[in-house]
Amino acid sequence: MRSEATKGLTLSAPATLYVGFLVAAPLAILVAYSLWTQTYVSVDRTPTLANYREAFTDPLVRHLMIRSILIAATVTIATVALAYPIAYFIALRAERKTLWLLLITIPFWSSYLLRVFAWKLILGFNGVMNSALLGLGLIDEPLTFLLYNEFAVVLTLAHAWAPFAILPIYVSIQKIDLSLLEAATDLGNGPVQRFLRVTLPLTIPGIIAACLIIFIPTVGDYVTPSLVGGSDGKMIANLIQVQFGAANNWPLGATLSLLAMMSVGFVAILFVLSSTSLGRRIR
User: Fold this and answer.
1) Residue 91 lies in a domain
2) What is the pLDDT of residues 79-95, one digit of tens each?
């Protein structure tokens, strides 16, 4: 037993050290910086909780944190709701599944930054959307609410993360035993009842995975809010970027980063627990 344990530890040691170097070390550095304070030209390494007090009492931080979570939640719900029918069609109805999956990954052939700029051109004051509506005579003047607000951020992020929602849901639907659907039909269940009683409960793990894959990185996105969000679409990551950049206040930036991580982790754990409980009730 000791020999087997030694072999296991030896084999896992490189991966453990690698993960520790890339994950644990940066987190430890963030924690250390969050306990320091920034002076005019240097960092005071005297341990203090001043940065946490400033972050908790600053109304701007609270506002941006709440806005970030709400935007990420909206993007997650909208993306998963639109991705589920597509994944369902590909898994159970489509004949050429490989072709459909290839089409889903086409957006990844271009840079994420280019896709954001494309939406900026589409939603702009003189962009494709306004030009088309003006040409059709549906509006008299360009719409101003399409860009530089939360709507633009949600739309752009939903498009960018759509494949990450489709693929895990597709995998969960693909694993469903079709004999269960046939048995539900034999028992007198219609399409809606069959979906609610069989398909949906069995695909909840895929839905949870899709939600987490979208929600967690969306909260920390700062490129999209910077380009299409304007002043009404800024998120907590934009404030963190300012602290590490123009403000040159790394301790406060590290504090905000840790608070954002803890907030996302709390919401994610709460979501997983509630989703699991809901799945058990449905079953």
Assistant:
1) yes
2) 999 999 999 999 988 88
Contact 61, 253 (CB under 8 A): no
- Considering its fold, how many domains does the chain have in total? 1
Domain that holds residue 214: 52-109+145-282
- In the chain the first and final C-alpha atoms are separated, in Å, by 41
Q: 30: burial class by Cβ within 10 Å (0-12, 13-18, 19+)?
A: middle
Query: Can you tell me the distance from the alpha carbon of 91 to that of 193, in angstroms, rounded to the nearest whole number?
Result: 19
Helices (DSSP H) in the chain: which residue ranges? 2-19, 25-34, 50-57, 59-92, 97-104, 112-123, 128-135, 150-174, 178-186, 191-194, 200-202, 204-219, 223-224, 236-244, 250-282
Confidence of residue 258 (pLDDT cuts 50, 70, 90): very high
Q: Does position 1 have pLDDT exceeding 60, yes or no?
A: no
The answer as to whether 10 is a domain residue is: no
Q: 196-225 pLDDT, tens per residue?
A: 888 998 999 999 999 999 999 999 999 999
CATH number, residue 182 = 1.10.3720.10
Q: DSSP letter for 197, please.
A: I
Provide the whole-model pTM.
0.90
Overall residue count recorded for the chain in this entry:
283
Using DSSP bridges, classify how beta strands 37-38 and 43-44 pair: parallel, antiparallel or unpaired.
antiparallel
* Identity of residue 270: L
